[in-house]
Amino acid sequence: MSTDRALDTFPPSREAALARLEAFVPKAARDYTTRRNYDLGPGAHDNVSMLSAYLRHRVLTEQEVLDAVLAEHSRSAAEKFIQEVFWRTYFKGWLEMRPPVWGGYRSELAFAWDQVQTQSGLRRAWEDACTGQTGIDCFDAWARELVETGYLHNHARMWFASIWIFTLNLPWALGADFFLRHLCDGDPASNTLGWRWVAGLQTPSKTYQARASNIRKYTDERFHPKWQLASDCPPVRGAENPPRMEAPAGDSFDPSKKTAFLLHDDDLSPGWLLDRGLTPLATATLDVTGRLSILQPADDVGAFKSALMADCLARHDGRLGQVTEGMSEAQAIADWAREVGAEQIVTSYAPVGPVADLLHEVAGLPVLRPLRPYDRRAWPHATAGFFKFKDKIPALLGEMRGLRAA
Ligand SMILES: Cc1cc2nc3c(=O)[nH]c(=O)nc-3n(C[C@H](O)[C@H](O)[C@H](O)COP(=O)(O)OP(=O)(O)OC[C@H]3O[C@@H](n4cnc5c(N)ncnc54)[C@H](O)[C@@H]3O)c2cc1C
Predict the structure, then answer these.
(1) What totals of helices (H) and strands (E) does the chain contain, helices first?
(2) Is the Cβ–Cβ distance between 51 and 17 less than 8 Å?
(3) In the record, which residues are listed under signal peptide (predicted)?
(4) ipTM of this complex prediction, to 2 decimal places
(5) Same-domain check for residues 126 and 194
(6) Residue 125 C-alpha to ligand 1 middle, in angstroms?
């Protein structure tokens, strides 16, 4: 596996992200609406934006992407693309209000991993799926594309997950883990909930069936797995969705207090805090790659995240105080913050996932997590399904413009 291919797919810098956004904006309306569902294969994904790896790490923010698109197109012309961007926001908000679903996935994964280690048939089937040796051509090609490039088209993710669960009869959590270990955009909310949706856990009793004719059409006839796919896709059994909690409001911070700042890969655009008067005595960067999975994530994923972090530090050089890199333990973070003489730790709010898990373990000093206004406004609307959330998009876009004008 070559590290270069994923870094070629997603050059790890904000400059590259902005260039990709600029190149995509003219295609965000009619072209995207008519062509977005086609998976044309590795190196040919120019019918979609391929911005997810940057959005996921907030090298670009949703607001920046929406602003750029709306500067060139009307809301109705770019409606499909705008909705897709809001799917990310919706999934984050949904999980934020139901954090036990993340813990449930982790437990499910630990259980499935235990089974892989003790059942040789399952282990072989899991290895064949991860290495693209199942004999189902499309599936095998997607497994290889994912490992080699760190990316899969949305439709391929849906087909892949469906075949993994219903044709290969593999535990869904192992599939979600395979994605998280290899995707450059691997995201606790979009990935966990995407897999749960295919499995019939997210929208109870509604599963996603991969059909040979649909794959043939939307891969431009590159694949046609006739008679190879399960025709029966009964929902996977699992716990009911937990009751909904309040959406977080985020913390405020006192910029006059001595502050240690934590920079993490859920938000690599810290300018919004620096512009609010945050002047850190010192900054530590977090490295939670090891917490993504029970197994070792792909080298590409680690390399991509480190390079984005280095790019972020370079962009904010001179504004972060003395920088310590790569902290991954709560005790070390608390010790470091005390040593630099901080009265408080400030960090951009980390949504449910490995960074938030680590931050919850930090004790001894207050850890303040300001939440971006975009998230604070949107997340509370993720109360039910996306279709209800979607109705709020015009109002959210209006508020976004208001925020900009303020
Ligand atoms: C099983 C499964 C697992 C997934 N895992 C992830 C993941 O780990 N990380 C991740 O970022 N996305 C995930 N997705 C969502 C989606 O597939 C990717 O965001 C999208 O394919 C990224 O490619 P793009 O940037 O070219 O998308 P585009 O089609 O150009 O869409 C524009 C943006 O909208 C957002 N978006 C589009 N579709 C979705 C969606 N279904 N859910 C949430 N946001 C969306 C992304 O931010 C994307 O960059 C998953 C979907 C499925 C079905």
Answers:
(1) 20, 5
(2) yes
(3) none
(4) 0.99
(5) yes
(6) 27
